[in-house]
Specification:
It is built from six helices and three strands. It is mostly helical and 191 residues long. Strands 1-2-3 form a three-stranded antiparallel β-sheet. The chain is elongated and about 95 Å long. It starts with a helix and ends in a 7-residue tail after the last helix.
Amino acid sequence: LHRFEQRLSERLQETAHLLDQHERRLFEDQLLGALTAQLRERVDGTHQLVLSMDAAMAPRTLASGKRLSIRWRPRPDTDPGRKELLELLKHDPAFHTPERLARLRGLLSQEVQAAHRERPDRTYLEILDEAVDYRRWHRFELELCDPDNSRTRLTRARHAQLSGGEKAATLHLPLFAAAHAWFEAAAPGCP
């Protein structure tokens, strides 16, 4: 009887441990789903603002007949893991398969570990804040568009070749377009 009781106690502990692991996995999946949804929403929201900025700048041409265009793209030095993470973020987390969720969990974990390695003296919240800062994963790019819609990236060297008025326009027009896009995105009742 004592042996049976001991064996039953061991089985209960094993079962409780498995249940704890299962609950933990469910909690992590829910947390990961919420984090993924929030990241996806913010990345999509930023893309929409950039499209609105681009649309606001489109009718304004420079003296040369060119117009300014803006894009928000992943950084060219983005490592393959982050590229995969950005691809996975394009999809609604509610429709991820368990394999995709596991891959997403692994990729986000890599981001957290990399942020921790950079500065291990920070709190977990500070590390997490940096690790999921999608803004660091992208950059804004300005392009000059010819009337035939061919595009040239506006680099410092290309900017130096512009006339004084065009230089001023290429510096100020994106700022005004950003303010315009921000106010346009506000709810109708906002001041």
